[in-house]
Each structure stands twice: as C-alpha cells, then as structure tokens.
What does this fold into?
Amino acid sequence: MDEYFHLKDKKILVTGASSGIGKGIAERLARAGAHLYICGRDKERLDRVAESLNGTSHQTFLGDLTSAELQEHIASECEKLDGVVLNAGLIELIPFQIHNDQSIRELMEVNYMAPTLLLQKLIKNRKIARNASMILMSSVTSAVHGSIGGTIYGSSKGALEGLVKSLSIELGKQGIRVNSVSPGIIQTEAIEVLRTSLGEESFQNDLKKYPLGRYGEPKDVASAVHFLLSDSSSWITGINLVVDGGLTAHS
Ligand SMILES: NC(=O)c1ccc[n+]([C@@H]2O[C@H](COP(=O)([O-])OP(=O)(O)OC[C@H]3O[C@@H](n4cnc5c(N)ncnc54)[C@H](OP(=O)(O)O)[C@@H]3O)[C@@H](O)[C@H]2O)c1
It folds into this structure.
C-alpha cells in the first residue's frame, strides 16, 4: 500500500465493528496493515468479523459500551493506540413528541456519553500515542442539518461534533488529531430496519435528493476513515468530513 496510506502495525480501536459501517471500517483498516481492537455486543457476529479480517492477532471486546466497567476494561487492556474510531451508535428517528424520558436518555447515553467517557478513560490511562488520530462517527443529521424524527439523534451527533472542536485544540500540542465523519444514508442493517418502518416509497423519494444517485455503502465511509487515520491527513484536525454523495450540497 502507498506509503501515505498504509497503517502497518498501527494499533487501532474500532467500536461497533460487529456490523454495518464499523465492520466495513475494520475490514479496510486490517487490509491496510493495522492491528485492531474491535468492539461489539453480539458475540457471534463480532467473532465472525474478527476471524474474517486480514492479519492474525486482532482482539475483541464484547459488551455494552454504556457500561463504565467495559469502558474501564478497554482502557486498561489495550496497548497504546495510534487510532480510535468511535463508531458504535443507535439510529432512531422518532418525532419529538413521541420521545419519552427513557428514549431520549438512551440515545444520548449510547451516541454521546459512551464514546465521550471511553475517550476520556483512554486519555487518562495514557493509552493514546503521540500523533494518534481519533474519529467520532457523526451523521448529516446533527447540529447543521435536521431531518424529520432526528431531534434527539441529531442532538447526540451535534454534541459529538462540539466535542471534536474543543478536544482537537486541547490535544493538538501532542500531535493528536480529533475529527468527525458525517455520513448520509449508508446501506446497513440499521437502515434496512428504517426502510421497513418508513416504507419503500419514502425511501425512493429520499434517494432523489442524492446528486450521485445512490445511497452510500460502508466502504465509502471506510475510505474517509482510512484517510483520516493515515499520514495523508497529518495536518487535518478539528474538522467534520461529510460523506454523503452530495446530499448536503442542497441549501
Ligand atoms: N447507516 C447510516 O445511514 C448512518 C448514517 C449516518 C451515521 N451513521 C452512524 O454510523 C454508526 C454505525 O451505524 P450502522 O448503520 O453501521 O449501524 P448498525 O449496523 O446498527 O451497527 C451499529 C454498531 O454499533 C454497535 N452498538 C450499538 N449500540 C451499542 C452499545 N450500546 N454498546 C456497544 N455497541 C453498540 C452494534 O453492536 P451489536 O450489533 O453487536 O449490538 C453495531 O456493531 C452509528 O454511529 C450511526 O449513527 C450511520
């Protein structure tokens, strides 16, 4: 692989690697030579991903990332990391008045609190190497663009983008970079569930808003994450990289 893109022997943590975008990211990074720590809740699927990856010695962390014990465990067991991809998340599009206390708290816990607290524990335990690159998975539905049903989901992602801005300033002196990636619709299991509940017609209408004429695939996001983890992006920090087939080019 090109010298600017290889990740040979880099140690990288990827959360939510048991399916969808995270699985696509893990496959790409392993092919680029990285040693991975991959996380998920579903043991069978996570093990299957680990077995399918290039390289031999990838490690798995199983469990719910909202658990402080699991966060501590990961932050104490992994070696010093050259990269962190906080991708695990819950996609729930619910009209604001239908949300309740529990559904609001759950979205904020999984999408904002869990990655934030895990990141803080990794930093406190000195598990982030100098010149490391950290990526938080946001969404085009965040603080800049809205969508019907996206009030709380978008708030959780907007909060992550806020964290990226200030943390990139705090960690810049150590050469540590912090960025987010905002995908448009990417065809994953989570989206198949939404497609069933929202209906095919509404999906076909939505697809018309994508200038490139298709929804994304996990590999489209994996390419952006690969770039942000590699030396090719060594002077890029504090940004949000939008990967949306042109969706947000519309005003
Ligand atoms: N797909 C899209 O169109 C889209 C667009 C914009 C942003 N995103 C973001 O991209 C990320 C991945 O989405 P996806 O479409 O790939 O979803 P997905 O297929 O449902 O995968 C979600 C992953 O996160 C893990 N996860 C969820 N909740 C968790 C928890 N509490 N603790 C530990 N792991 C947890 C899941 O683990 P298990 O399966 O093992 O339970 C799974 O590996 C999310 O942050 C999402 O918000 C997706």
Remarks:
- The chain has a mean pLDDT of 96.
- The chain is about 45% helix and 15% strand.
- The chain has one domain: 11-239.
- The radius of gyration is 17 Å.
